[in-house]
Amino acid sequence: MPTLELCVVALLVICITHWIYKWKNPKCNGILPPGSMGLPLIGETIQLIIPSYSLDVSPFIKKRLQRYGLVFRTSVAGRPVVVSADPEFNHFILQQEGKLVESWYLDLFAKVFKQGENRPDGGYIHKYVRNLALSHFGAESLKAKLLLQLEEMINKTISTWSNQESIEVKRAAAEMALNFGAKQMFSYDPEKSSIDLTEKYVNFSKGLLSFPLNIPGTAYHKCLEDHKKVLNIMRDILNERLTSPDETNQGDVLDHIIEDRKVENFLTEEFVVQIMFGLLFVSFDSLSATLTLAFKLLAENPMVLEELNAEHEAILRKRANPNSPITWEEYKSMTFTLYVINETLRLGSVTPGLIRRARKDIQVNGYTIPAGWAIMAVTSALQLNPDVFEDPLAFNPWRWKVV
């Protein structure tokens, strides 16, 4: 009996050792970039999600760039990832959308299709989603309708803020961004909704950056639960539109998609819901974070705020009626405002990087990125490069005068 137990233990040790070896040395038709896959299953997730309160490149990424170079491999939440701070390679990757790579959210969309069902090409889906977003949020829409709607929303929001003793800027910015985005997407009215959509999206965003442990009480579990609730809300809205199209037509993004369903077979009801959720999340998360940072930077830099106010007051003085709505010409004339926006975006990387998935094996600097691996293009490595921007961590909108 002891001999049998010894054999079982030995076999178990061999299997575990072999599994760990395969984890740390993934298969590749070439040479993998240098790096570490971390611990089995969790990889280096814990190190990555440790918060940083600096505007500099994430300590997790910065430490590994110094150790491995501009391109390295790691594992996050059990998924192999290649991180790149190489500007030329990052530019190349972002130009290959729908060809060599596809956006990370397509992983979520792929799960919607049943086994054996014809799935459209990832590049085609990306092109559709991009054109959909541009048609409703691009320059033409901004000029035609969004500019005035934004001004109305901002004035209403600021009026509400002025009646409060204090506000939590991050939460308030998130609510403003999400309510506006949801209104454009599916005519959402927070005053008529029984569920706080902002709270659900905030919880979802927090959960994405937490350890992926799906048990009650964890942020990740809360993230998944709120994700389901939001999807159910969107399913109800979609079903209502499909049931009574003449009575519920709003001319929003959802109506656009419903019309496209007549010619696009891949737009199943579940797929439409996922598109709506994904588009709203991307816009809400990036815009709310950028607005919050802008408030902080302007509060800390009174000279910038003074010049910004001067530019806006000069525009008001030229108006026949100071209370008239903003015009497209006025918007285009706000030169310093654009400098402030550019500088805020340069400093305010919402995520460690832009994430794509390799559709095919990709060669970079003599290394191979296997198909199916995630690629994180660290754009902040260029935006905070002292060789490109002098004193890169300083908030200096005037630097854009010479760009």
TrEMBL record:
Q: Which InterPro entries match?
A: Cyt_P450, Cyt_P450_E_grp-IV, Cyt_P450_sf
Q: Which GO terms describe its molecular function?
A: heme binding; iron ion binding; monooxygenase activity; oxidoreductase activity, acting on paired donors, with incorporation or reduction of molecular oxygen
What UniProt keywords apply to this chain's record, in alphabetical order? Answer: Iron, Metal-binding
A GO biological process of this protein is: sterol metabolic process
Asked if the keyword RNA-binding belongs to this entry, the reply reads no
Instruction: State if Metal-binding is listed as a keyword.
Output: yes
Q: Where is the signal peptide?
A: none
List, alphabetically, the Pfam families matched. p450 (PF00067)
Q: Which family is this sequence assigned to?
A: Belongs to the cytochrome P450 family.
Q: What is this protein called?
A: Cytochrome P450
